[in-house]
Write a structure and sequence with these properties.
This protein has about 210 residues and is mainly β. Helix content is about 10%, strand content about 35%. It contains 2 helices and 18 strands. Strands 1, 2, 3, 4, 5, 6, 7, 8 and 9 form a 9-stranded mixed sheet that branches. Strand 10 and strand 11 form a beta hairpin.
């Protein structure tokens, strides 16, 4: 993180994902209007972001003048300029596209639906997602979305179709339920004929 103050540049390492903290040398006694910070995120944010400088009170980050940041607005390694106006930090440049409402960030390039949809057969699920400019989530994407910090596990209520890894020419792949315990499981699933109806969720390429 690089900060410009009174024609001087400082470099500090930010810690945290949504609640960021940095230490500048020398430490400022207070945040001054006009302070600029070039933030290089180390992780994708999961929601609204705040920045704390040298233990001073945390300050919210805003985009479009007044809006809080959305999940995945920040992505690792992509610099974002912040400008302090005396009250909040404003994003001074273009942000990486966030996820649509109802979706969670899955890495830098993908969004996954936060809740599954009502059952359809595998073919209809694919078509429904495609008609919205999205796609049925893949096997590996579904597992990652289930295991990540801001995960979908709590919304898994039954088997869900995924779009790969069936290992069969006649069956389609399901994820989300352990066939032995019948409990939600990020690693378990099964196979069904694609004309049967199951829950599903769409993924979105940003």
């Amino acid at each position: 993180m690089t900060t410009e103050r009174v024609n001087a540049g400082n470099v500090a390492t930010a810690s945290g994902t949504d609640d960021l903290s940095i230490d500048l040398v020398p430490a400022p006694a207070a945040l001054a209007p006009g302070m600029r910070i070039l933030l290089i995120p180390s992780a994708v944010n999961q929601g609204p972001v705040s920045v704390q400088v040298n233990g001073l009170p945390a300050v919210d980050v805003r985009k479009y003048a007044a809006a809080p940041l959305d999940s995945a607005d920040l992505r690792p390694g992509v610099p974002v300029e912040l400008v302090f106006d005396g009250s909040v930090f404003h994003v001074g440049g273009q942000l990486y596209p966030g996820c649509p409402p109802g979706f969670k960030a899955l890495g830098r390039t993908t969004c996954v639906e936060a809740t599954s949809r009502e059952p359809l057969n595998w073919y209809a699920a694919n078509v429904t997602c495609a008609n919205e400019g999205k796609r049925l989530c893949g096997f590996s994407e579904w597992i990652r979305a289930c295991l990540q910090q801001d995960n979908i596990f709590g919304s898994v209520v039954d088997y869900e179709w995924v779009d790969e890894a069936a290992n069969s020419t006649n069956l389609a792949k399901l994820m989300g339920v352990n066939e032995t315990t019948l409990q939600p499981d990020c690693y378990a699933g099964g196979h069904r004929v694609p004309t049967s109806t199951q829950r599903y969720r769409c993924c979105y390429d940003r």
